[in-house]
Amino acid sequence: MTEISGFGTVLLFMTGGLGFVIIMLMVGRILRPSNPTPEKQKSYESGEEPIGSAWGKFNVRFYVIALIFLLFEAELVFLFPWATVFGDEKLILETNGLWAQFSLIETFIFIGILAVGLGYVWAKGMLGWVRPKPQASEFKSKIPQEVYKEFNERN
To answer: What is the DSSP string of 26-47?
Structure first.
């Protein structure tokens, strides 16, 4: 009997995983109830009634800032294991402080790369929001303007 190579094993796992996903989706489609109503088909946002189409335009800067946040957040997560290892006094004493020096230099390089990235994003203006231009209100008051002027002069 011949053995399966490493690539064959990977192919078997990928095929099995894909087959499992397809079978589970089909089983779910068969077993779940299907009772669509207009109320269930309506989009839902925090208990508020939707206004207009769900295909409204959003400012692209929202997504850019979200991606930048995720990027820096994911990179900063790497500082926690460093702090754990760096705080181990036994390891520092065993290596005569060489581990601590190497770790500290490596961390400053890492933080420097993060700072350069933040500076680049800041210089490109990707952190600033586009502010809407103020518009005059179209509110029509039933109170005459003279009454407002008198009130403002008294106070």
So the answer is: HHHHHHS-----HHHHS--BTT
**CA angle 4–5–9, rounded 5-degree value:** 75
Does 13 fall in a domain?
no
Query: Alpha-carbon distance 19 to 25, whole Å?
Result: 10
The CA distance from 153 to 151, in Å, is: 5
**pLDDT of res. 54:** 66
Looking at the structure of the chain, the number of domains it has is 1
Q: What's the gap between Cα 41 and its chain centre?
A: 27
Its domain, for residue 112, covers 59-128
Looking at beta carbons, which pairs linking 96-103 to residues 24 or more positions away fall under 8 Å? none
- Contact call for residues 92 and 100 (beta carbons, < 8 A): yes
Is residue 84 domain-resident?
yes
pLDDT in tens, 110-148: 889 888 988 888 888 777 766 667 777 776 767 777 887
What's the confidence (pLDDT) of residue 30? 93
Tell me: the pLDDT tens digits for 58-81?
777 778 788 888 877 877 787 777
pTM of the full predicted structure? Answer: 0.42
Residue 100 within a domain: yes
User: Contact at 8 Å (CB) between 108 and 49?
Assistant: no
